[in-house]
Amino acid sequence: MISVKKKIIVANWKMNPVNIAAAKKLFTGIKEIARNLSKVQTIIAPPAPYLSELTKLYKGHRILFSGQDIFWEEKGSFTGEISGTMLKDLGAACVIIGHSERRARGESNEDIHKKIQAVLQTGLTAILCIGESDRDHKDGTHLAFLTSQLESALGGISKGKLSKVVIAYEPIWAIGKSKDDAMKPEELHETVLFIKKVVTNSFGKSAAFKVPILYGGSVEKDNAGTLLTEGMVDGLLVGHASLSVREFGDILRSAQEVS
Ligand code: PGA
User: Among 85, 90, 150, 178, which is most exposed with the fewest C-beta within 10 angstroms?
Assistant: First the structure.
């Protein structure tokens, strides 16, 4: 189980860097910083083909490895797909599920639900991504949208299994830009409370309040600390800024400082 006592900082490398040599260099740089940070749970989500080489470079608990997606079947004629067991065998402890870039390429709420079930069945932790594409404060449609994403992804999951779920709130309008385009911390705090309320409605307060909630979307070194403290999140999911040792290292250090 991933503890909410530490700040959880996930590096979502997406389809980067370009080759294994570059991936090893990036990982080694991050490792030197992350291994000394006792209050931060660093999670690295590289492209799956890099996992087996990268896991050889680190043994310990300060850094965990994550997949970026899985397929829900265990094996069979599913060209190009990867199962949870395959990722686990390569050393992954977590899997990102339902990232907006996958949803944009056709992944449905139903697919995401099946993937979450498969992740939990395998004993891995699911990092479930949710987030609206735009916001209209007047009619609150984004809240109904988040509710339906949460309810369809987590419906039918047992309370016990909820301890292996992390929610990453990533408003799509804030992804892949720069620090000034990230969500404002006070707005983030409101949304975090809303997410907790929706999860509480299905699972009860004590289980729901143990689910770590992360924020993702243009997190950089200059806004990481404020998003964590004023946004009241348990961690961050970092895209482009996780591809630079210096930038990501500063984000990890900010997380250590505010913990
Ligand atoms: P970003 O990406 O940090 O580059 O905005 C976040 C994500 O897509 O997970």
Answer: 178
Q: Give the CB-side neighbour count of residue 230, counting CA atoms within 13 A.
A: 10
Alpha-carbon distance 163 to 48, whole Å?
A: 24
Give the CB-side neighbour count of residue 4, counting CA atoms within 13 A: 17
pLDDT at position 103, please? 97
Ligand 1 pocket at CB < 6 A: 12, 170, 175-176, 216-219, 237-241
Q: Is residue 1 part of a domain?
A: no
| Structural domains counted in the chain | 1
Q: Per the omega criterion (within 30 degrees of 0), is the bond before 17 cis?
A: yes
Q: What are 176-226's pLDDT values in tens digits?
A: 898 888 899 999 999 999 999 999 999 999 999 999 999 999 999 999 999
Would 2 be classed as within a structural domain? no
